[in-house]
Amino acid sequence: MAEARTIGSLPVANVQALAATCNGLDEQVPERYLRTEASSDEIIAGDDSGSAIPIIDLDKLLDPQSLEAECVKLGSACQNWGIFQLVNHGVPDEVTRNLMSDIAEFFKLPLEAKKECSQQPGSLEGYGQAFVVSEDQKLDWADMLYLQVQPSASRDFRFWPTHPASFRHSVNVYSSEAAKLTCRLLEFMAKGVGVEPATLRGVFEGQGQPQGMRVNYYPPCQDADRVLGLSPHTDPGGLTLLLQMNNDVQGLQVKKDGKWFAVVALDDAIIVNVGDVLEILSNGKFRSVEHRAVIHPNKERISVAMFHYPCQNLMLGPLPEFVKGDKMRYRSTSYQDFFMQYLAAKLDGRDHLERLMLE
Ligand code: OGA
Ligand code: NI
User: Could you tell which of 239, 252, 290, 299 is best to mutate to test the pocket of ligand 1, judged by most ligand atoms within 8 Å of the CB?
Assistant: First the structure.
């Protein structure tokens, strides 16, 4: 994605280092990280009965006996929530374990060593932050490492950690597992709402299936209730697969019907969410879920979001198969423009998406 490198975030402090100072010496958290909305919104705990996000079982989707019913469940999860937990997902345990342990090792390196992967001025990729566009904007309590993973020819190894030595291999192996799984899910999602299974997959296949990986590092914060790890946003692409380091530290929250719900990830589940491109392609049948991440007072949290993008030259608009019998609900736009605008602004919940809605 050569074009994407022409924009980037303003540089900000390293939060892992800042947290070490604040938490160790009882220093105040800088004003720029304190935000009122962090503590004022009502949160529905993930363990409240009936409020948990849907759980989808890939084994059931692959079994002809249960396929029909599980597909309908998947379709309605994507329609009502835009997010679900996928169990029996088929990605070998070893693959996710190796990836997470290599990532954890990277964040344990001294700051100077991690900085070898730092973003360059105007780059999207690398170690740093994203979506900081003004000097007075509130900041997220996190550091991130963003890498363009597919197509493989687009990899820019200046930003890829060389320590641990197995990092590249681990990302590579997980990348193909994630891409395979995404294609499967796109078929079942289409089928779940009565659309020809190949319809969605076709938009994401070919041209090396663009994939980007964002690793989020959320340090603990003594003022956890007054900071946010990741501002409310939707993901711009198709499907996002999210892994988190260990399930005793939760942080993801999703918005539904105006309320925030905490996501309690099951052991061994992959969290899957719908992004903007799928909402638009499906004419609003699937929902690009607004989500954010909160911070733990004394434990770090690491998550890995694998984003699946359509090909760059896509004219993004509702697919005829999804419009049938309904009116067109979104304006069409060049995907490239849409993506560039997303990257050039601060995170804004669903606003950028709603601007494309007709009426
Ligand atoms: C993301 C994201 C959530 C999390 O990286 O886009 O939504 O829990 N991450 O880290
Ligand atoms: Ni996200």
Answer: 252
**How many angstroms is it from 246 CA to the middle of ligand 1?**
15
Give backbone dihedrals phi and psi of 257, rounded to 5 degrees, phi first: 50, 40
266 burial type by CB count under 10 A (0-12 exposed, 13-18 middle, 19+ buried) = middle
Q: Looking at ligand 1, which residue's alpha carbon is closest to its atom 10? A: 303
Residue-range definition of the domain harbouring residue 302: 2-354
CATH of the domain at 319: 2.60.120.330
Annotate 334-351 with b (16+ C-beta within 10 A) or e (fewer): ebbebbeebbeeebbebe
pLDDT, averaged across the chain: 92
Query: pTM of the full predicted structure?
Result: 0.95
Task: Report the number of distinct structural domains present in the chain.
Answer: 1
pLDDT band at 21 (very low <50, low <70, confident <90, very high): confident
Helix axes 93-108, 167-192, angle to 10 degrees: 130
275 located within any domain? yes
Residues 94-125 pLDDT 10s:
999 999 999 999 999 999 999 999 999 888 89
The answer as to whether 359 is a domain residue is no
Domain assignment of residue 102, yes or no: yes
Residue 2 pLDDT level (bands cut at 50, 70, 90): very low
Residue 177 lies in a domain: yes
What distance in Å separates the CA atoms of residue 30 and residue 165, rounded to the nearest whole number? Answer: 36
Find the helix packing angle between 167-192 and 64-80, rounded to 10°.
Answer: 90
CA distance 45 to 59: 28
- The answer on pLDDT for 63 being more than 70 is yes
Report DSSP letters for 288-300, one per residue: ---EEE---SS--
> 99 in the Ramachandran plot: left (φ > 0), alpha (ψ -120 to 50) or beta?
alpha
